[in-house]
Protein 1
Amino acid sequence: MSDGPNDGGETTRPRLFQPFSARGLTLKNRLVLPPMVHYRCAPGNTCGDFHLVHLGRYALGGFGLVFVEATAVEEIGLINEHDLGIWNDAQVESFRPLIAFMRRQDTAIGIQLAHGGRKASSQTAMRGMGPLNEDDLKAGARIWQPVGPAAEPVAKGWLTPRQLTTAECRAMVGTWAHAARNAVKAGFDAIEIHTAHGYLLASFLSPVSNTRNDEYGGDRAGRMRLPLEIVEAVRREMPASMPLFVRVSSVDGTKEGWNMDDTVVYARELKARGVDVIDCSSGGISGAATAMQVPRSLGFQVPFAERVRKEADIATVAVGIILEAEQAEDILRRGQADLIAIGRQSQFNPNIAQHWAHDLGINRRFEDWSPEFGWWLEKRIRTLDGFATPTGVVTKRV
Ligand SMILES: Cc1cc2nc3c(=O)[nH]c(=O)nc-3n(C[C@H](O)[C@H](O)[C@H](O)COP(=O)(O)O)c2cc1C
């Protein structure tokens, strides 16, 4: 947080801090915590103290919407054994304290529903995000048989998935619908379906991984069939007032892979099925989700969000190396996206939403902070007069 020239107080409200509505949900601002796995589930792949404290920090830090990380719709869909799940009642119940806490902070909470597909049973990010190796297994890592669109591994060294039969693809729609029903039962405000990063639904979309010749493969329409049937089924489980997000890998970043033209067509189909927001990520089809298949730079995925927003006429989330308030505000000002997701910069600074409000010239007297913090910080402003700014930057040392 800096103390710029705007110290005089509120001018016109920056776009980042204007509300956003989708269906019956109104977010107090445009800042979103994207789904981020942290391998810290409680026993039984439930949500415990770690997630309450970890995600609670972003609510106290002023975010409009916080997403729970990739949460498995069935056990073999866990990307890693330490991930969250939402296929049974104990898991549903475990989310209630977190959801209640977020509601008291006026921060909306969504859940990303996920299935690891052929990347299930893989390493944590800290161990490389690749296939489990001998060391992982010696250390007690759990390994299981993943499934995918074809019996083709992600890359050399990865587990070979078992190909889902046509009947199992149809049954997979029910698996996702059941998880969506559970998410609604738990009380989430929004659902995001994970169709990115090479996990199950991304691997059905991409010609790199989907080499099937039944109704769930072949041309683009065939490859989109499973994700779209799942979207329809999930939408049916949700109240009309609850928004549905879909995360896409806008481009695979590999030759002959899924590309932006595909994404625009897909986004139009998603919109026609009641999806409200497209969360525009990229990559992950033939390696770890962090593998550099798409060159990275400041806001490198923003053009994807912009094109989907303009050509599919649907709200989008911009995500990926968005580091500063002005950068984020500019994305909204230019009409490139409707919402801004901040991942690692939020890990670095969970109060980033509050700080960015300050940077953009509002909330200079900590008005938007929870009063238990804001009251004290506001009182401190006078105390600091002459030697430090309101945020505690020392300006005079003697
Ligand atoms: C620790 C960590 C875990 C992540 N887990 C997920 C996840 O569960 N689902 C998902 O779609 N993306 C996941 N991502 C990707 C982020 O949601 C986000 O798209 C990415 O970090 C880029 O944004 P950033 O540059 O602001 O961090 C993860 C990223 C990080 C850093």
Note: DSSP finds 13 helices and twelve strands in the chain.
Protein 2
Amino acid sequence: MKGKMKAMVFHESLNMKYEEIDIPEVGPDEVLVKVRACGICGSDIAYYWGMSPLETSDGKGPLVLGHEFSGEIVELGELPKSLGLFKVGDRVTVDPVQYCNACEVCKKGQVNLCENKSVSGVSVDGAFAEYAKAKYTSIFQLPDNVTYEQGAFSEPLADAVYAVQNLEVTLGDFCVVIGPGPIGLAEAQLIKSSGAGTVVVIGTRDYRLEVAKENGADFIFNTGDSNSKYYVPDITKKIAELTDGKMADRVLVATGNPEVMGLPFEISGRRSVIVFFGLPGEKDIVPVPALQTTFWDKRIKFPWLAPFTWPRALNAISTKLIDVDALVTHKFKLEELITALEKVKNREGNPLKALVIP
Ligand SMILES: [Zn+2]
Ligand SMILES: [Zn+2]
């Protein structure tokens, strides 16, 4: 489709402009999507403020950010057209992590670790724009009862599904989620739906903990704010009390905050599973007490991205295993993106997930 479109183009840190640029040209294995909703991710904030480099060849822009999106197919490349998998007008969501499906890593099924992958909004143009293109292999149809806005949450939710799969929840387990961001809150709901006996969510902001309480958590504890009515000064003691000293069966760390990296080892029990699923900094270290971890036969995992979990994520929304609407708190127009990033960063109006609606 030839023509121009509006897009927010990121040039360098603190320099992003509302511009008119060419509509992306669709290659033989690609489709063009008219963007209907695109979520704002913590990583978009990190890119805009220069806290992390893009994954372009030189780490710099210009690039259209935005990787959590849904929309309507407006054009098909040769390959998806000939396969008849999609048609113009289809309502879809897009896995921004586009694997090559041909390298040795992909052929072993480890697609999330593909070394030739491109990522919409991170290494190639994304969806803070009227249109975005993607490989047909990373397109998923939205179920009829899933809205575009809910569909835009399928990227963080697919991540959450992969983390929870790795947690291996068994019936009745005592489970703890550390970090009630949008993904952590989604994980708490999925854990409860997976048959956990008790779900505890630990955080430092009451408004987020209260969303957890309404969506899957049995107990919420604030470990950072001594004025909070959920404040617990000694969380390890609290978990010991709640479990009669047996401690937690499953602990999911849904934050990259290095200050809490040691906590899961204190609060987890025998044969427990500990999953780290927040993005840590380059130099961060997880302090593992080796002897105690060995004596209690604990398993520690570091899942990454969301391989093969998209159908489950969409199914979880469609069958209402998870209430995505409770996690979407703000909506902005495309041209308001900078304001939106500032508000989310400064936590104005208690944001969870904010969406851009082009
Ligand atoms: Zn994201
Ligand atoms: Zn590959």
Note: Residues 4-153+327-357 form a domain with the Quinone Oxidoreductase; Chain A, domain 1 fold (CATH 3.90.180.10).
